[in-house]
Design a protein that fits this description.
5-stranded antiparallel beta sheet, globular, 12 helices, 3 domains, Uridine Diphospho-n-acetylenolpyruvylglucosamine Reductase, domain 3, Uridine Diphospho-n-acetylenolpyruvylglucosamine Reductase, domain 2, Uridine Diphospho-n-acetylenolpyruvylglucosamine Reductase, domain 1
């Protein structure tokens, strides 16, 4: 892949043989043949020649991505920053944030301004632009619950497009941007979220939030109190990727028919199986529990392992490659399916076409 006859502006943006080791939370030693930092929307408009008919890879915080050693694509690093209030009416406040902004920094910004809605999503790694792609969620709240709309650049068409809530087609850890026809096609530049300025609808029922609040003597929590509890819980379960490379939860929590769950309860009795309602006739299971029960918690193979405190997290102990991490995850999937009859699905985006080339 070569970029010929580029205008001066495009040539200045594109770098060659760029290391991505410090731009992915797994700490995988990956190199991009071509790389460009996108700091403003006009950067994309000035690169239409380079983007036309060229394979690309969009990179945000690198927190949900498993990279190969060599990426023969133009990697576009979303660095569009900034956040502002664009509309306020009674209790509703709509903010607009740049797609390259760190997600947790946005949560902290909202709390500093007395806004509610993002507190349960504190300390999730990654960028604002990646949040709707994955429909990130934690502790009973998903991005779709506070989402209004977004603006994205269509790399195929070379123009901007707007997506409202319906167009995003949100589902559990899914959106239209993960569909095969749209995967890697849209670079999200702006995300708009609906928050509250008062009368916050707080969610404390999921996980250990209530327990942490009670230990702190908090009976009437604020959004900041809930965010503090979530941060404490997450830090107790998840390793800091700066010290131990990881991408948080590697697998989705599987959703199965209620009939299958009832059969599991009979077969595994008297073991209590952690479960949550997932809609009519459906049950959500804890993937971490399934992996732990299969004997993988703390297990290591070479430089790859399951985190000793949370089986849902795969870690890079030193110099594991993306290929080695992917192979390790497939061993877990096969083992869990053999033991429980349930096939786990990755939450992490592993670009298998690149990892297996």
């Amino acid at each position: 892949m070569k970029f010929l006859h580029l205008r001066e502006r495009q040539a200045a943006l594109i770098q060659e043989n760029q290391s991505l080791r410090h731009l992915n939370t797994f700490g995988v030693d990956a190199t991009a043949s071509y790389f460009a930092e996108i700091r403003q929307e006009s950067d994309l408009q000035s690169m239409t020649d380079a983007l036309a008919n060229q394979p690309t890879l969009i990179l945000g915080g690198g927190s949900n991505l498993l990279l190969p050693k060599k990426i023969e694509r133009l990697v576009l690093h979303n660095c569009i920053m900034g956040v502002e209030v664009i509309r306020q009416l009674h209790n509703e406040v709509v903010i607009e944030a740049g797609g390259g902004m760190n997600w947790h920094q946005l949560v902290l910004w909202s709390l500093e301004h007395g806004l509610g809605g993002l507190e349960n999503l504190a300390l999730i790694p990654g960028t604002v632009g990646a949040a709707p792609v994955q429909n990130i969620g934690a502790y009973g709240v998903e991005l779709k619950d506070i989402f209004e709309s977004l603006r994205a650049f269509d790399l195929q068409e070379g123009k901007f497009a707007e997506f409202d809530h319906r167009a995003c087609q949100f589902a559990y850890r899914h959106s239209t941007f993960k569909d095969e026809s749209n995967k890697g096609r849209f670079l999200i530049t702006k995300v708009r979220l609906k928050l509250t300025s008062r009368e916050h609808q707080l969610n404390t029922s999921y996980g250990a939030i209530q327990k942490v609040l009670a230990e702190k003597g908090v009976s009437s929590p604020t959004p900041s109190d809930i965010a503090g509890a979530v941060i404490e819980i997450r830090r107790s379960k998840l390793p800091d990727w700066r010290q131990l490379g990881n991408a948080g939860s590697f697998f989705k929590n599987p959703i199965i028919p209620e009939a299958q769950f009832e059969e599991m309860k009979v077969r595994l009795a008297p073991t209590q199986i952690p479960s949550y309602p997932a809609g009519e006739g459906l049950v959500k299971l804890a993937a971490g529990w399934l992996i732990d029960q299969s004997g993988w918690k703390g297990k290591r193979k070479g430089d790859v392992g399951c985190y000793e405190k949370q089986a849902l997290v795969i870690v890079n102990h030193d110099n594991a490659t993306g290929e080695e991490i992917l192979a390790f995850s497939k061993l877990i999937v096969d083992n869990v399916e053999e033991r429980f009859g349930i096939q786990l699905e990755r939450e992490v985006n592993a670009i298998e076409s690149l990892l297996t080339e």
